Amino acid sequence: MSNIRISTQLFCLVFGLIAAFSILQFVQSKAASEELRQERFHLLSSQTQSAISILQYYYDLSQAGEMAEEEARAAAYKTVSNIRFEPDGYFFGFDSDTKMILHANPATVGKDFKGITDKNGYAFADAMMDIARNGGGITTYHWPKLGEPDNIVFEKASYNAEFAPWGIVLGTGVYTDDLNAQIWADQMTSIIADLVILILGLVAAYFLIRGITNPLKNVHDAMQAVAAENVDIEVPHTEMRNEIGMMANATQTLKEKVIERQQLTQAKIEQDALINSERESNTNATKAEAERQANVVKTIGAALAQLANGDLSTRCETLGGEYETLRQNFNNAMEKLEAAMANIHQKGSDLDATFSAISHSSSEMSTRTESQAANLEETSAALTELTESVSSAATDAKNVAGRVDEVSNDAARSNAVVDKAISAMSSIEKSSAEITKVISVIDEIAFQTNLLALNAGVEAARAGEAGLGFAVVAQEVRELAQRSAAAAKEIKGQIQQSTTQVKEGVGLVGQTGEALKRISDQINEANQLVAKISVSASEQSTTLHAISEAVNEIDYGTQRNAAMAEELTATAGGLAQDTSELMSMIQQFKLTQKRDEMRMAS
């Protein structure tokens, strides 16, 4: 699929959807045709049962002694034979030997149909007898219509049922050529509609796909041009607000980035050229300066080598140019350093005594400092223990928070489960109400069915031939019976639904109980963690007490150090005076007097 063009994939998708729709519509048409055919067969069954009810009426009269059996049979056969219904329906009957005993055409009565076949060689009469004795059913065969030539036959469907008291098979049929023609016309209409929809769908898909693929191709060409760093091309379809517009805008952004990169590249080339030019001029100047600096370094280096050997009388010769000031400063510094060293030697002996006193004080302070260090070590250990306790308390607090979160989540789920249980019980209540309504309808229909059945039987018996119209009443009775059956099915469905919802409610209640149990367990764990936190707090209190004692000792040592600091301050007073004289001699380096005058002053 990844290698197939998008337009082809879209065409296949549209064609597949239309084809699936056409197949579904054809299947529905076939189902509708079969339903129409079954409805026609059901009508035949209803009409046959109506005729049997007439036979039953005359049979009951003969059994009651109101009519002789032969007379009752003759009247019944005559009544049934005279019944007609549109478009060309009538009743016929066979005795146990497959002899025609009643028919709309009197010429057919008395004819033996045993073994007789239709134009296709089908022994339809024998098949009717077998089906009727097995509870009744439909037989399809080919037979001429009344008033039509005998050599022209049409497909006919007949429903036959046995009237057991007299041992006869009664039936009626209907020609299905008009039904087949109607079904064929419906199917052709469906096929033509499917073809029209298919053509229109493919045309619409063609224009729709072109509206997608053409902009994509334009954006693709622009993207390739930008990839080749052709920034003169205009990116199309940037004004669109769909995915194509997003791709076009991305290509435009890429184009701008390429332009920016080209500009940066050109600027870098120009900058590199300027830097190379400046570097060359600087190199020449640096080379000349380096030669002068090498001479200065060589001269200063020789003087510093003598200074390193302790010769303070060394001086620099002429350096020339801008380095003449450096030579003068170096010579002046050497002169002042030589005079300062003499004075520093004199003050060194005075500072020695002062340093001895400072050394004694420093030694004592060092001892006290060591003591303080030990106390600080104990304080550090106590702080470490405090840190561990605090860390443990924090961990327990974190665990408590986690458990509380779980408890909250379980409580939320428990609420949801309870809500579902309530909803399920409400659905059960509604289903029960619907069942009550349906049962009321069934009761009414059953009552009316009984009344209509009773009236149909009585009126048909009294009316004789005029009672043919009561066949319609019998048909209405059967329709009411069908409504009763449908209502019964609906009751069954509602009851099953109520049973399922009750089970669901029970399951939800069980889940609620389990969730509440988990919440209880987690609360117990949270209580245990709180107890641990309390123990940790007690340990922290003890540790803090130890830290307080150590801090008190440090405070006492600090006070003693303060007293010692006063002694050091007094000792440092003499050192400060000597240091002041030393600084006065060092400040002489900033003066510009000649070396001979400095020697006379010393």
Automatic annotation (TrEMBL):
Residues covered by the HAMP domain: 210-263, 291-342
Domain of life: Bacteria
Sequence similarity: Belongs to the methyl-accepting chemotaxis (MCP) protein family.
Keyword RNA-binding included in the entry's annotation: no
Transmembrane segments: 191-209
Compartments (UniProt record): Cell membrane
InterPro entries noted in UniProt: HAMP_dom, MCP_chemotaxis, MCPsignal_dom, sCache_2
Domain Methyl-accepting transducer: 347-576
Protein name: Methyl-accepting chemotaxis protein
Organism whose genome encodes this protein: Ahrensia kielensis
Entry-linked PROSITE patterns: CHEMOTAXIS_TRANSDUC_2 (PS50111), HAMP (PS50885)
PANTHER family named among the record's database cross-references: METHYL-ACCEPTING CHEMOTAXIS PROTEIN 3, PROTEIN ICFG
Keyword Protease: no
